[in-house]
Amino acid sequence: MRAGRLRSTVITDPKIVTLSVILLSGGLDSTTVAAVAKAEGRELYALTVDYNQRHRIELDAAKRVATFFGVRKHVIVPLDLRLFGGSSLTDSLEVPKDIPLSEIGKTIPNTYVPARNTVFLSLALAFAETVAASEIYLGISAVDSSGYPDCDLEFVRAFERLANIATRTGRESQSFSIRTPLLELSKKETIELGLSLGVDYSLTFTCYDPTADGESCGRCESCLLRLEAFRQVGYPDPLRYTCGS
């Protein structure tokens, strides 16, 4: 789905209200998705998962973004995935740095958190069912990404089918849909879309390995993709970097 098509679906009738849950990490992508959802006339419930990740500064970013968009309710769920480990974001493994942009996404890096989006969507589904929301918004992209297996259309459609057979709501009253408006957009296109919708990217946070005082490293895959996208857009990235900005 391209940016122009997204903008063409904006709902202007204030009497039409669709309740939706958004998985809000505080990062660039989920923040842009929040802007898209609001432009499409959605009333949002935000869910953030505190999974004891290395980049915990993003939890503060998620709070800022939730306030910015005036969500109905923002729930932060504590879930300690360090009990499992298996990822440089939840274990003592070193975060990969300085990967050439041309190589990002060719292999699955150790920043992949096992089954993370499956776990997060399950929590969002439970939240949606309790607040009578019919949609879950998810900020994933199959373009300009680290190649995670839970960030493509096949995964999204499989979970959507699951949601509609594994819940009382799906069986008895309404169907759930998983909305992924950035799935086919590059990071550059994502930023352009967000800027067109008035997103303040200074509220967001992206780095996998930030300093204690909140500076982004500028060298992890997440930082490299973000920096390159802002460069392509020709717009200054408002975040602070220790290098690479």
Can you offer a commentary on this structure?
The chain is of the alpha/beta class and 245 residues long. The protein has a single domain, classed as Rossmann fold (3-Layer(aba) Sandwich). The chain has a five-stranded parallel beta sheet, with helices on both faces. The longest helix has 16 residues. 43% of the residues are buried. The N terminus is likely disordered.
CATH fold category name = Rossmann fold
Range of strand content: 5-15%
State the domain count: 1
Number of strands: 5
Mean pLDDT across residues: 91
Biggest sheet strand line-up: 3-2-1-4-5
Uncertain segments are: 1-12
Rg calc: 17 Å
**Helicity, in percent?**
25-40%
CATH class: Alpha Beta
Could you give the topology of this structure?
Elements: H1 3-8, E1 18-23, H2 28-39, E2 42-50, H3 57-69, E3 73-78, H4 116-131, E4 135-137, H5 153-165, H6 168-172, E5 177-179, H7 187-196, H8 221-233
Parallel strand pairs: 1-2, 1-4, 2-3, 4-5
Briefly summarize what is shown.
This protein has helices spanning 3-8, 28-39, 57-69, 116-131, 153-165, 168-172, 187-196, 221-233; strands spanning 18-23, 42-50, 73-78, 135-137, 177-179. It is α/β, with parallel strands linked by helices and 245 residues long. A five-stranded parallel β-sheet has the order 3-2-1-4-5, with helices on both faces.
Attribute tags:
single chain; 245 residues; alpha/beta; Rossmann fold; five-stranded parallel beta sheet; 8 helices; 36% helix; globular; disordered N terminus
